[in-house]
Amino acid sequence: MSEAVQVHSLLSDFDISLFRSGRHYKLYEKFGSHELTINGQVGVYFAVWAPNAKEVSVIGNFNGWNPYSHQLHVRWDSSGIWEGFIPNLQNGEVYKYHILTNQGERLEKSDPFALHTEIPPSTASIVSTTWYKWTDSEWMYNRRETNALDRPYSVYEMHLGSWMRDPDHPDRFFSYLEIGERLVPYLQEMGFTHVEFMPVMEHPYYPSWGYQITGYFAASSRYGGPQELMGLIDALHQAGIGVLLDWVPSHFPGDAHGLYRFDGTHLFEHEDPKKGFHPDWQSYIFNYGRNEVKSFLISNAFFWLDRYHIDGLRVDAVASMLYLDYSRKQGEWIPNEFGGNENLEAVRFLKELNEAVYKYFPNTQTIAEESTSWPGVSRATFNDGLGFGMKWMMGWMHDTLSYFKEDPVNRAYHHDKMTFAGVYAFTENFMLPLSHDEVVYGKQSLIYKMPGDEWQKFANLRSLYLYMFTFSGSKLLFMGGEFGQTSEWNVNQSLDWHLLQFKPHLGLKKFVSDLNAVYKNHPALYEKAFSPEGFSWIEMADHANSLFVYARKGHDEENDLLVVLNLTPVVRRNFRVGAPHEGKWELVLNSDDAKYNGSAVAVKKKVATESVYWMNQKQSIVLDVPPLAGLVFKRVL
Q1: Do 200 and 245 touch, CB atoms closer than 8 A?
Q2: Terminus of the chain with fewer CB atoms < 10 Å: N or C?
Q3: Rounded alpha-carbon distances, angstroms, from residue 530 to 379, 427, 525, 534, 588
Q4: What percent of the chain has pLDDT over 70?
Q5: What is the pLDDT of residue 632?
Q6: How confident is the model at residue 3 (pLDDT cuts 50, 70, 90)?
Q7: Which residues form the active site (predicted)?
Q8: 471 near 418, Cβ under 8 Å?
Q9: Are 439 and 162 in contact (CB under 8 A)?
Q10: Residue 200, pLDDT score
């Protein structure tokens, strides 16, 4: 052993016990690299898990990348942890681990717990810190209300590197702070309650969008250091905007410097490719049955909630974790111990993850991207659920987009696509997503999914958004959708902000801003978002007119809303609509309004009910309903 590495440990016997039992949820406090002062001497402590390694050393600029000069000490307790203190190093030092395997291979690996990395394509780790002086105490204190399931949840999903770039230097990424200077006022203007960042963890291949992660604890250095990302999150919190992160515990890439075959064996992934290799993404699946891997993943979730003040995690590709036969043909997968296709180890992991998150970070949310009919994804684990706070409503998304793609002439024959979601809408706490996946790979932008001429396309999209924001559940819209981005999302360039010089795009942006305001200011749209008590169809069978009428309800019936959707280009004159309550109803939003570039068909601002039984309601009102438009009315006493 080299005397250049002093014996030192941050790990107690209790830490080791928790780690080996899969219940150490703050490994980032112990593993990785940490600048310390020991006996008056500044240096860096290193700790890495490599149980099948013959030797582990730290290499870097400080020793000329010499694998023999700074060898770490293996712990005596058979935990497989190598550690030690190297004097005269400090934050900013570039390093890797050199691993000599039992088979004689020599590997150079990035630190799985590195807090910072070199800018790709360079792959070394950088000694860093997550110290930051936060100024978001008011947000964190009030988060139990602002981030709750009975509060408005309107999420702006975005990719940091392609949201906006410098027009004079379009190939340059804005830094986290430069993004914040533009993003914070924009989200305030648009009225979104939350922003969701596609994965910010370090990833070597930029076109993977961040979903092929090598540095699970490192904020991507493409946009700056850890403190700059913290500054962006801090600024968003001070502006009253919650921050969600995409999190990927389902798979990781096979890059030589990453987790794959970390110590020469299949340490983080399953050894058998029938369980450990992902055919869709050509990546590797975590071994959820290995306790140390479970500790690693749950610690990573805690890390972002703890050190970065994240308000929630959207967990990617949950379906691929739950099913052993996901994207596999017969003979390409191994059944579980009962002969089924459920990945019981992944199920246990997800339950433990959610139980731990909600115990230690009770004011946050976990959101599952889960595309199957797996029961109880967002139900409590004590009710045999998986324990997520919300689940993406993929069925609603596919059915709704399929309906809106139809020419209005044909919509009468597809009416059930709009109403079917009501059958299962309250089996989960659903989030309605119009996500990045729907505007890439030849699927077209949202505006070009809509039929008709330019005016009709925008009218249809405004109607779709009104339907989305007034239907049950929370909301998510991918960047660019709010102003009618015409081209598909391209990760390598900025959104087409120049489109806002044109009235249709400017009108759509204004409409989404007003729609968010209506959503946030009317409790009927969020207080019972996940309960059948909060939604009732008034007219769901008018196939001929492609017309839909429904009511939204909160805790107080004085706040009830009435929604009317006309999804044909025909104006419905003197159209009678059932009303859930007697009295006057006031128009609070009209997607056909001239300020949104609508046709401006005159609609009464206030209308009184008549004692005419209609649509199974004792009271009704008579309206002129604009073409391809939605109307929202509020009860006024």
Answers
A1: yes
A2: C
A3: 12, 9, 10, 8, 23
A4: 100
A5: 98
A6: low
A7: 316 (nucleophile), 369 (proton donor)
A8: no
A9: no
A10: 98
Q: Do the domains 535-636 and 13-127 match in fold?
A: yes
Band the pLDDT of 637: cuts 50, 70, 90.
Answer: confident
What does the pLDDT look like over 570-591, one tens digit per residue?
999 999 999 999 999 999 999 9
| Residue 160 Cα distances to 144, 153, 241, 294, 575, angstroms | 27, 21, 16, 29, 46
Is the distance from CB of 314 to CB of 153 less than 8 angstroms?
no
Tell me the per-residue pLDDT of 75-119, one tens digit each, with 9 for 90 and over: 999 999 999 999 999 999 999 999 999 999 999 999 999 999 999
Which residues are bridge partners to 584 per DSSP?
608, 636
What type of residue sits at position 466? L
Give burial (CB, 10 Å; 0-12/13-18/19+) of 387.
buried
pLDDT of residue 1: 37
Residue ranges of E strands in 528-583: 535-542, 547-552, 561-566, 572-579
Going from N- to C-terminal start, the domains of the chain cover 13-127, 535-636
Per-residue pLDDT tens digits for 239-254: 999 999 999 999 999 9
If phi > 0 it is left, if psi is from -120 to 50 it is alpha, else beta; for residue 142 that is: alpha
Please report the DSSP string for 121-144 in residue order: T---EE----------HHHHHHHH
In 3D space, the residue among 90, 84, 93, 117 whose CA is nearest the CA of residue 11 turns out to be 84
Tokens representing 393 are 């409503």
Say how far apart CA 286 and CA 48 lie, in whole Å: 18
Q: Give the Cα separation of 553 and 150 in Å (integer).
A: 12
- Taking alpha carbons only, the member of 468, 293, 312, 296 closest to residue 378 is 312
What type of residue is 619? Q
pLDDT of residue 2: 44
The CATH H-level superfamily of 535-636 is: Golgi alpha-mannosidase II (2.60.40.1180)
Q: What does the pLDDT average to over 126-131?
A: 98
464-480 b/e with 16+ CB inside 10 Å = b? bbbbbbbbbbbbbbbbb
Active site residues: 316, 369
From the number of C-beta atoms within 10 Å of its C-beta (0-12, 13-18, 19+), residue 85 rates as buried
pLDDT exceeds 50 at position 351: yes
Angle at 421 between CA 419 and CA 425, to 5 degrees: 130
Class of the domain covering 13-127: mainly beta
Q: What is the pLDDT of residues 369-419, one digit of tens each?
A: 999 999 999 999 999 999 999 999 999 999 999 999 999 999 999 999 999
Q: Give per-residue pLDDT as tens, 75-84.
A: 999 999 999 9
Rounded distance between C-alpha atoms, residue 20 and residue 623, angstroms: 67
Q: Which two tokens stand for residue 350?
A: 């997800």
| Alpha helix ranges (H) inside 192-290 | 226-238, 273-276
Peptide linkage before 121 cis (omega within 30 of 0)? yes
What pTM was computed for the model? 0.96
- Residue 181 pLDDT more than 70? yes
Helix (H) or strand (E) run with residue 350 in it: helix 344-360
Query: What is the rounded distance in angstroms from the CA atom of residue 300 to the CA atom of residue 319?
Result: 20
What is the mean pLDDT of the segment spanning 143-153?
95
